[in-house]
Amino acid sequence: MEAASISHAAVHDGHDHHGPPAANRSSRVEPELLGMLLFIISEIMVFGAFFTAYFFIRIAQGNPWPAPGTSLPVQVAGVNTAILISSSFTIHWAQTSIKNGNRFGLKAGMLTTFLLGCSFLFIQINEYANIGFAPQDAAQQTIFYSLTGLHGAHVFIGLLLLLFVTIRAFRGHYTPEEHRGVEVPGIYWHFVDIMWIIVYTTVYVL
Amino acid sequence: MAAKLRAPGFYRAGIMMLGGVALATGLTWLVRMTTGHATYSHYLSGDAILSVSLLAVPLAFLIGIGGFDYWFYWAAGRPTRPEDHSGHGAYSWKDYFRVNTDHKVIGVQYTVSSFFFLLVGGLIAMLMRAQLAQPGSHFVDANTFNGLFSVHASLLIFLFIIPVFAGLANFVLPLMIGAPDMAFPRLNALSFWLLPVAGALMLGSFFAPGGAFADGWTAYAPLSDNAPIGQTFFSVAVQFAGASSIMTALNFLVTIITMRAPGMSFFRMPLLVWANFATSLLVVIATPFIAASQFFVLLDRALGFNFFNAAHGGDVLMYQHVFWFYSHPAVYIMMLPGFGIISEIIAVKARKPIFGYRMMAFSLLAIVALGFTVWAHHMFTSGMAAWIRIPMAITTAIIAVPTGIKIFSWLATLWRGVLHLDTPMLFALGFLTTFTLGGISGVMLAMVPFDIHVSATYFIVAHIHYVLFGGSLMTIFAGVYYWFPKMTGRMYDERLGKWHFWATFIFVNLTFGPMHILGLQGMPRRVSTYAAKFTDLNLFISLASFGLGLSTLVFFYNIVTSWRGGPRAIPNPWRGMTLEWQVSSPPPIFNFDRVPTVVGGPYEYGVPGAVHGIFAPAPAPAAAGAAASVVRAPSQ
Ligand code: HEM
Ligand SMILES: [Cu+2]
Predict the structure, then answer these.
(1) Which residue of A has its CA nearest to B80?
(2) Contact B179 A135 (CB under 8 A)
(3) Domain membership of residue A190 as a residue range
(4) How far is it, in rounded angstroms, from Cα B621 to Cα B629?
(5) For a substitution probing ligand 1, which of B323, B431, B445, B512 has the most ligand atoms within 8 Å of its CB?
(6) What is the CATH T-level fold of the domain B109-334, as seen in this structure?
(7) Burial class (CB within 10 angstroms; exposed 0-12, middle 13-18, buried 19+) of B214
(8) Complex confidence, ipTM
(9) Which residue of B has its CA nearest to A40?
(10) Statement: the pTM of the whole predicted model exceeds 0.80
């Protein structure tokens, strides 16, 4: 994704093989960016299907919410929400830093974001362990675990991406000119954040 | 040897798959131990290990074959390597069994493996018709029969029609828009390799304890919740096939948007490109829903969740809503690329500009939008709230309008054209006929009272085969014949092709036509036997279907012999204007030495002096015409 580090290598073996002509760029949008946006559309639809299940179980079936005899830890999850939202700001900090050539800001921003994401996941798992009901109990619990679990899985994927970016940041990749590798995973991370706000509102608050 | 095991390929894949089984065993053992299964003997459960293996082993295979190599390399923090296309081209048949990033190689891989699944799915259909030739269970028992029709439909939908269109487009679409490759070649390779995995899972279900999945390609819950383990094979296979189509669709969209040749505005794109643009939008938006529906079933089955457990507040109708919200758009995923193929062929073979080019493009987009508003027409008899039927019946009738626009545009293109009635054109005309019949029965089904009468009868079977066999498959045959010279560099045998067409056309109607009558008389679909009064028509249908099966052998024979020893193809045997015909057959390894410039529409046949693309750096002024190799509209 970032060309600076490889340009030498490309020039080096560019002599002995004849390559294709460079493709014409018929749009100002970067292919990587567009690909990520389309992927996010797909992801939104996955969540859409899970919210459909939520709609049918909670509204169409009219099951009481939360299930009788259970309660949802709205405050704990609220703190967790704050953690995740703040991580959107730290990754933004990392991105602006590299644009201004501030490598320290890039590294610190990525690392903080990664750690914030980890603590979100950690708190979430703790919540599962202490919540006092299981997905097998009834449909409400099923959809509670499914929506939060689906989101958790996305946090996990996002964290993997962040980890790779952090490693690359520490290894000296990315320059003020070429930082798509930070930008594109960043979009995914913002998506994971916004999705959580929707999940939190519908599942815990409403 | 050690080097062989470390290099990506089938050896490494084999080792990895063993590792996958070990991982699945260890993982289930661990989870069952920590979540408190009472006795040690419960720590290991065959079903649990099998379920987890169904995910772990295919992933291990993909890692072993090398589908993820680059991303692992990237994840480890190494410098990025832009795809340099050095892996382009296939030099022997063995290269087709490796991970290759050349869109032309991938296109052939896709197409050939999909046709393999057509062969298998077709053989299964022959077994079904053998069973149905007479009433009574004389050939297979009812459960096996249920497995047969379920695997038949799933294979042909998820592993033939959907991917074969992706395969043909993979080959020709980058050429048509003047691009050296797809936007994400490595993703392209991965999305191909997911397919054999999905196919192996579906076919493997026959060997599962309890038999293959047996509740149709629709796999309605709660039946699928409680079915034997073969059902899990289906649910997992759909995940792989679905992931494959989403990746390809994303790739097509990015390729079409960002890699068109200079001068190729959206309204200068060939209609095949438009069709794949529309289809890819449908795939990206709709496919996650079927993935989710199968996630729900998997979670219910494997972990005892309650999505579809009515006793615990689950909702069984929800399955159908989520499933059809994908699967109705999916019928257009299975049709729109075919519309694209037909537009190409009819314009070239009638030697006329396509009638109403812009309407053709807009009607595709209209179908995409409307396609999301009709899903519950599959649920008229499901017991959902009755009022939903009315808006759904109306939207269903409306969606026939853009489809009709396309039919009339093709007819108007044919009008007073100079028709070249060779094999691709015959299939295109055959498609127009049978697909229109299928569309008419579709509009009949949109009428709720009529649908209530024939839902879940052979009338539905007739409808879907008119649109899928008479529609999609006809366009696929047309497309394969049309681009066969380009893909292989050889000509097919025209005489055999015509035989194939006439046999297909006649036997399709003889096989699926009488099914309308059976349905109206009340013969239910998905049954292994039937009342004695249906015997005569069923025997007739079975005999006709064997004829249809044999006609396909003509096709396979023609393709195999022509590929091996057919006469060499010239670059542009059909005198087409679109860019793929302006390069050699098969195309050079890197498609173009120089990216072409597009200066006009793609279908200006018979328009004096019309030009679509030129191989010059900039639009050539008229005086410099000699220097630039100008692609003129060939006179007819
Ligand atoms: C004019 C356009 C069409 C209309 C109005 C239409 C309408 C319908 C309706 C109302 C049904 C539900 C019947 C029932 O289950 O009671 C149906 C079933 C079906 N249609 Fe169409 N259809 C159209 C075109 C197509 C096309 C183009 C395809 C595929 C290429 C297609 C494939 C199917 C399939 C596969 C089913 C059966 C699904 C199943 O239950 O297994 N249809 N159609
Ligand atoms: Cu439909």
Answers:
(1) A1
(2) no
(3) 30-66+74-205
(4) 12
(5) B445
(6) Cytochrome C Oxidase; Chain A (1.20.210)
(7) buried
(8) 0.92
(9) B284
(10) yes
